[in-house]
Amino acid sequence: MSALKSIRSLAPLLDRVLVQRLKPEAKTATGIFLPETAVKELNEAKVLAVGPGAFDKSGNRVAVSVQPGDKVLIPQFGGSPIKVGEEEYSLFRDHELLAKINE
Fold first, then answer.
1. Average pLDDT score over the chain
2. Measured at the alpha carbon of residue 50, what is the angle toward residues 48 and 53, in degrees to the nearest 5?
3. Cβ contact 71:48 at 8 Å
4. 27-61 residue pLDDT tens
5. Could you tell me which residues come within 8 angstroms of residue 99 by beta carbon, excluding any fewer than 6 positions away?
6. What φ, ψ does residue 36 adopt, rounded to 5°?
7. What does the DSSP 8-state code read for residue 36?
8. Following CA atoms 69, 37, 29, 47 in sequence, which dihedral angle do they give, to the nearest 10 degrees?
9. What is the pLDDT of residue 2?
10. How many angstroms separate the most distant Cα atoms in the chain?
């Protein structure tokens, strides 16, 4: 099995969504740096790529509900983890995403 050289070469299939979990701030608003163990992992992620959508019972393609660049709320656990170098990504099905964050 060859290692993935770039996450850009990964194209999600069907209704899968490729996300990267956002890293929490390691510094408080007052400028105090927090140790890594005190920083809670966020459930927010940025959508990097989406599949073309799944098919319904009639054979029609159902588009994915998010687009690359969107911020989404993801479950604490689940998804398929993918590691490229030191970076970690996850693949979720569209219906597993909890919410889209509108800013």
1. 83
2. 170
3. no
4. 666 766 665 555 456 689 999 999 999 999 999 99
5. 72, 73
6. -55, -35
7. G
8. 0
9. 44
10. 56
